[in-house]
Hints:
- By secondary structure, this protein is α+β, with helices and mostly antiparallel strands.
- The radius of gyration is 38 Å and the shape is rod-shaped.
- Strands 4-3-2-1-5 form a 5-stranded mixed beta sheet.
- It has 2 domains: 3-79, CATH 3.30.1320.10; 90-128.
- Helix content is 48%, strand content 21%.
- The N and C termini lie far apart (118 Å).
- Strand 1 and strand 2 (15-24) form a beta hairpin.
Amino acid sequence: MALKMRLARGGAKKRPHYSIVIADARSPRDGRFIEKIGTFNPMLPKDGERVKLDVERAKHWLANGVQPTDRVLRFLDEAGLLKRDARNNPQKALPGKKAQERIDARKQAEEDAKAKAAEAAAAPAEEAPAAEAPAEEAPAEEAAKEETAG
């Protein structure tokens, strides 16, 4: 039988109050439990007594192989019974797959628009000097020929 040290919810709607219980892992969250070893009231201020825990019973159950849930492990870490490693999930802030596809599509469209604008700006610039250059050279050449002839 796998035992868990977990929270069982009580209290009214939008006014939660939790009991820290030892229960079979297969039993429902608010269902049957073996022993109640403390309480957690999230409505109280953080500097107040939000968590009340029977440390001796918690030590007893931990010695007998009870696995605490993550939230209860935080309470045990504050009490100095167990060490909880800090978690780091750098992927958490990234957008989901579909949102990432939309972002990539938008970036691709912007790059295509910039490339077309650059081509459009470069094409007339290349054609204009080529078209104007012979027109400019011709009068200069004619003027030079007139001066040498005259």
